Amino acid sequence: MLASGFVDARVSKYLLFSIVTSSIIASITNSKYLFHIQVAPHLWRYKQIWRLLIWQGCYTNSTEVLFAAMTAYHLRIIERLWGTHKFTSFIISTLPYTALLPPLVLALILRPLSLNTLNYLPAGPTPVLFALLAQYHAVIPHVYKYRLATSSSSTASPPSGPIFSDKSISYLLAAQLALSQVPGSLISAVVGWCIGYAWRNEILPGAAQWRVPSWVLQEKSRGEDYEGLRRRLEDESLVVVDAASGVVEGRDDERGRQRRTLGPQILDQFRGAF
User: Fold this and answer.
1) Among 54, 101, 211, 262, which residue has the least CB neighbours within 10 Å?
2) 199-236: pLDDT as tens digits
3) Residue 113: which pLDDT band, with cuts at 50, 70 and 90?
4) Which residue pairs, CB below 8 angstroms and at least 24 apart, start in 33-36?
5) What is the dihedral of CA 237, 239, 243, 245, to 10 degrees?
């Protein structure tokens, strides 16, 4: 859980690399304008429904790429806790919801309520990251808390100031991502968070119980894993038994030498001299 890097978190590594490389490729090919969504004219006038499928493909500015990559790095602990199989299944099973719900909420609910003021949804997998952040909030406990003292106080009263934990840095990075292009980025973040908790409470139809086939991830079956574990434990037990038997034999030899009388011991000393 506390290992650095991407130990036991290969999908999180691919997610972080895809966030960075997709933005670079979009910049090189000058195709960033294809990923964001404007309800009018993209959806209502031009009927560009394909934007609903690709708008999470990349971020369009370096600030969002930085904070998204750092957030994905902090969320790798979810994959270590769940395992690669469940982690991948969560991302794929919630992908239809994270792709379709934010644009639909914006187009059908928020835009009419705002008198057509809200119209823009920035590109990037912000809903996916916030769905993962909801799991991080629910299952990962804090290790320690600390207080930022805002004023000096006497020894009789505790210092005043906000209280933070070791998880605060993860929430701060995610907050920067959610506030990068308000209000569109905030809509993506809130909807993604709700999707994450809906998945956790088994509200999303067909998402909570679905799992990626093991052959897709090239995972070994549980029987093979248990067989390797059994062999390793047997080898370790043999080593322990051999060491224990050696100690017992050594103690028996020592006890035999201690039980011999003084006469045979003296004869042994002079036996080689005759």
Assistant:
1) 262
2) 999 898 888 788 888 777 776 545 555 565 566 677 77
3) very high
4) 35/60, 35/123, 35/124, 36/60, 36/120, 36/121, 36/122, 36/123
5) 60
